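We were asked to recover a plausible sequence for a given structure. The inputs and outputs are reproduced exactly as logged, with field labels preserved.

PROBLEM: sequence recovery
POSITIONS: 405
GIVEN STRUCTURE:
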C-alpha cells in the first residue's frame, strides 16, 4: 500500500510542478526591466507592477535550483530568467543608506518604495544570488551573497540598531523564531557542497538551532512564535502566539540540520515537537486545514486572518512529513503527509488556470482569487512540489521499498 501511495503522489506532484512552473514562466517575466511580476490574478494577469525584493530573490532561487537539480528544467530560458532576476537585484535591491539594506518594495523599474526594519529581504537576496551562482558557475553572485550574509549576521548578533529600530522604554526585547529559522536556512544553502563554508558557518548553524529550540515552551507542549531573549515565555498576546505553519517549517529546517550533524536527539525533537505536535494542535477538526494563528491559552487571536487557511503552512507540512518519513520509516508520518496533501491539492490547486490559490476561508472556500501578491510568489508551492518529488524519487529507487506492496 505504501509503495502504491508513493507512486501515486510522485506522478501527481510531478505533473503539478510542471503546471505551476509554466504559470510563472508564462505570466511573471518583465522583459523590459528584468525581474518578475508577482501580483498576478487568477488568470495570471498583472494587477500591480510593484516588485517585492524578497519575492524576487525567492524566484531567482527557485528557477536556479530547478535548473541545477531537475533535468527536465535544464532549459536555457529558465536560467536566462533567473539571471535577469539576479541582475535586477544586484542593480536595484540595495538602498543607499548607511547600512546598505535592501528595499522591501521597488517600482517596476527598480526605484525604492519602502524599507522594512527586518532582515528578510536581505535573506532572500542571499538565497537567490547564492543559488544563481551555483547554477551559472559565476562566482560574483556568490561573493555578493556572502557579503550580505556577513551584514545580516552582524545586524542580528552584534548591532541590531543598524536595522533602524529605536530602543524605546516600553519595548520588551524578544526573540522571533523567524530570525534563527532564516539563518539556519541560509547556513544550509551556503554550506551545500562547500567544506570551507560549512566550517565557516558551523557555529552560526548551532546557534540558530539552539535559538529555535528555545521556542519549545509549556514543558514541551507548545512551540511559541515569540519568547524572551533568555528563552522564557512572554506576557500578553505576543507571548501566547502560535503559528502552526512556522513551527512545522522550522521542524524540517531542524531536521535537515540534524541529519547533517548526525544528531538523533535533534531529529526526534524536530519530528515530535515541531512537526507532529503543531500539526495536531493546528489542524481544524471541523473543516480540515491548518489554522494560520492560534493562542496557546485558547483565547481569541488578534490576527484578523487567524482562522483562514493559507497555502504555505500546508506546503511546509507536505515537505516536513515526507522528509521525516523518508528518514524514519514511521508510517504515521506518511499518513500525515497523505492527509495534508489531499486537503492541499483539493482546496488550493486551480486546475483551470494553473498555480494555487493562497487564501481560503476557514471552510476551505477561495477567499482571494489572486495567484500572487506581496507575500505569495514563485516559491512555497514550487519548492514543496520540487522537494517532495525529489524525496519520492529517492524512495522509489530504494530496494527496501520493493516489498512494501
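RECOVERED SEQUENCE:
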Amino acid at each position: 500500500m505504501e509503495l502504491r501511495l508513493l507512486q501515486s503522489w510522485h506522478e501527481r506532484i510531478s505533473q503539478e510542478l510542471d503546471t505551476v512552473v509554466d504559470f510563472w514562466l508564462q505570466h511573471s517575466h518583465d522583459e523590459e526591466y528584468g525581474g518578475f511580476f508577482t501580483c498576478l490574478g487568477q488568470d495570471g494577469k498583472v494587477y500591480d507592477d510593484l516588485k517585492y525584493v524578497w519575492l524576487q530573490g525567492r524566484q531567482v532561487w527557485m528557477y536556479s535550483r530547478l535548473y541545477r537539480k531537475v533535468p527536465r528544467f535544464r532549459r536555457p530560458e529558465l536560467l536566462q530568467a533567473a539571471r535577469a532576476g539576479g541582475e535586477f537585484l544586484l542593480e536595484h535591491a540595495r538602498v543607499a543608506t548607511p547600512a546598505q539594506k535592501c528595499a522591501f518594495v521597488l517600482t517596476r523599474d527598480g526605484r525604492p518604495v519602502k524599507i522594512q526594519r527586518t532582515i528578510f529581504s536581505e535573506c532572500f537576496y542571499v538565497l537567490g544570488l547564492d543559488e544563481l551562482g551555483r547554477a551559472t558557475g559565476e562566482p560574483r553572485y556568490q561573493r555578493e551573497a556572502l557579503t550580505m550574509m556577513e551584514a545580516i549576521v552582524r545586524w542580528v548578533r552584534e548591532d541590531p540598531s543598524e536595522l533602524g529600530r529605536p530602543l524605546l522604554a516600553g519595548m520588551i526585547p524578544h526573540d522571533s523564531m523567524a530570525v534563527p529559522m532564516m539563518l539556519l536556512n541560509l547556513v544550509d544553502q551556503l554550506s551545500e557542497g562547500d567544506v570551507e563554508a560549512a566550517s565557516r558557518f558551523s557555529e552560526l548553524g548551532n546557534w540558530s538551532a539552539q535559538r529555535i529550540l528555545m521556542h519549545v515552551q509549556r514543558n514541551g507542549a507548545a512551540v511559541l512564535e515569540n519568547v524572551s531573549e533568555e528563552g522564557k515565555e512572554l506576557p500578553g498576546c505576543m507571548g501566547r502566539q502560535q503559528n502552526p505553519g512556522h513551527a512545522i517549517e522550522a521542524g524540517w529546517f531542524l531536521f535537515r540540520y540534524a541529519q547533517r550533524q548526525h544528531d538523533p536527539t535533534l531529529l526526534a525533537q524536530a519530528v515530535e515537537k515541531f512537526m507532529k505536535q503543531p500539526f495536531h494542535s493546528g489542524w481544524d477538526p471541523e473543516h480540515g486545514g491548518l489554522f494560520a494563528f492560534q493562542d496557546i491559552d485558547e483565547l481569541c487571536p488578534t490576527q484578523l486572518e487567524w482562522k483562514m487557511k493559507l497555502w504555505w503552512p500546508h506546503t511546509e507540512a507536505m515537505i516536513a512529513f515526507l522528509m521525516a518519513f523518508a528518514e524514519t520509516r514511521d508510517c504515521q508520518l506518511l499518513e500525515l503527509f497523505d492527509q495534508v496533501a489531499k486537503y492541499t491539492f483539493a482546496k488550493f490547486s486551480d486546475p483551470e488556470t494553473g498555480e494555487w490559490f493562497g487564501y481560503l476561508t476557514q471552510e476551505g472556500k477561495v477567499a482571494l482569487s489572486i495567484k500572487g501578491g506581496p507575500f505569495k510568489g514563485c516559491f512555497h508551492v514550487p519548492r514543496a512540489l520540487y522537494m517532495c518529488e525529489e524525496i519520492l524519487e529517492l524512495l522509489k529507487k530504494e530496494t527496501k521499498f520493493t516489498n512494501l506492496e
